[in-house]
C-alpha cells in the first residue's frame, strides 16, 4: 500500500526555486507540512508565504547551518519524516578553464551539501526507527557529461555516497532514495545545449516523481522511467560504442551549443554570498 504523506513533515533544501519549489508545492498539495531552506532567506520567505510552507536560512555547505535548519524546523513543525536533499548548482564550461573557486563551489553545494544533510537526518531518524531521505541527483550522476565535468563528478559522488549509506541503513527503518532526472527547464539549465531525442522536463515532472517515491519508496528512480533501461544498457557496451552513442545523441555538443550569455545571470547569482541554487 502507498504511504499516507498527508500527516508528514517534509524538509527541502534549496526549496525556494525550480525543482525544490515544485517539490514543496506537490507535498503541500498532498497535505504534508513543509519546511524549505535557502541561503537567500528573504526570497525564500516570500515563496513560503505564497505556497504555504515555512522558510529557514540554510547554507548546505556548512554543517552547523544544516543542523540549525533541522532544529528550527523540528521545533516549529514537529519531527521531520522526509528530508529532501535538493540544493544544487551547476557552472558550465571547459574543465581546464574552470576556476578553483568554481570547482570548490560545485563540490561544496552538490556533494558536501548532500553529505551534510544526510549526516544531520540519519541520527534522529534512526533513533525513531523511521524516516526517508531523498537525494536529488541527476542523469549525469550515472553518465558524465562534457561541459559540466565537475557537476558530473559531484553527482557521481552522491550516487556512491548513497550506495554506501543505504547499506549501512539496512534494517534501521530509514529509507534512502535517489532521483535521477534528465535536464529540466530551470535556471540551472538556462542556455545549455540540448541533446538529440532528449526532452526537457519541467520541475513539476520531477517533483511528481519525488512525491511518488515518498509514497512508494524505491532506491533509484529515473525520470522519465524509460531512461533507466537505456542508461543501464549503455554500461554493457564497449567503450568505443558508448562514445559513438554519445556522439549520436549529441552529448558531445554541449560546449559548442550552450549560450553562455544566457547563463550569466544565473551563474552570477549562485556565486553570490546570499545565492541559492535553482535545483538539481
TrEMBL record:
One of its GO terms (molecular function) is oxidoreductase activity. Keywords: NADP, Oxidoreductase. Pfam families: adh_short (PF00106). The keyword Ion transport does not apply. PROSITE patterns: ADH_SHORT. The keyword Oxidoreductase applies. Belongs to the short-chain dehydrogenases/reductases (SDR) family. This is SDR family oxidoreductase. The lineage of its organism: Bacteria, Bacillati, Actinomycetota, Actinomycetes, Kitasatosporales.
Amino acid at each position: 500500500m502507498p504511504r499516507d504523506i498527508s500527516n508528514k513533515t517534509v524538509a527541502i533544501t534549496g526549496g525556494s526555486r525550480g525543482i525544490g519549489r515544485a517539490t514543496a508545492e506537490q507535498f503541500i498539495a498532498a497535505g504534508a507540512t513543509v519546511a524549505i531552506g535557502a541561503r537567500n532567506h528573504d526570497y525564500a520567505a516570500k515563496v513560503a508565504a505564497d505556497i504555504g510552507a515555512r522558510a529557514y536560512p540554510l547554507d548546505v555547505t556548512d554543517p552547523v547551518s544544516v543542523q540549525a535548519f533541522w532544529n528550527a524546523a523540528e521545533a516549529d513543525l514537529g519531527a521531520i519524516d522526509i528530508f529532501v536533499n535538493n540544493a544544487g548548482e551547476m557552472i558550465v564550461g571547459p574543465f581546464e578553464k574552470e576556476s578553483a573557486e568554481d570547482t570548490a563551489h560545485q563540490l561544496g553545494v552538490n556533494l558536501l551539501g548532500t553529505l551534510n544533510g544526510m549526516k544531520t537526518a540519519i541520527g534522529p531518524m534512526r533513533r525513531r526507527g523511521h524516516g526517508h531521505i531523498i537525494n536529488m541527483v541527476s542523469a549525469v550522476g550515472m553518465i558524465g557529461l562534457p561541459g559540466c565535468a565537475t557537476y558530473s563528478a559531484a553527482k557521481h559522488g552522491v550516487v556512491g555516497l548513497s550506495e554506501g549509506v543505504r547499506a549501512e541503513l539496512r534494517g534501521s527503518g530509514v529509507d534512502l532514495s535517489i532521483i535521477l532526472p534528465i535536464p529540466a527547464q530551470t535556471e540551472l539549465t538556462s542556455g545549455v545545449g540540448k541533446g538529440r531525442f532528449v526532452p526537457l522536463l519541467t520541475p513539476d515532472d520531477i517533483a511528481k516523481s519525488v512525491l511518488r517515491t515518498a509514497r512508494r519508496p524505491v532506491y533509484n528512480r529515473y525520470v522519465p522511467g524509460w531512461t533507466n533501461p537505456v542508461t543501464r544498457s549503455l554500461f554493457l557496451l564497449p567503450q568505443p560504442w558508448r562514445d559513438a552513442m554519445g556522439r549520436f545523441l549529441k552529448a558531445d555538443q554541449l560546449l559548442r551549443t550552450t549560450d553562455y550569455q544566457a547563463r550569466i545571470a544565473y551563474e552570477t547569482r549562485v556565486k553570490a554570498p546570499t545565492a541559492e541554487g535553482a535545483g538539481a
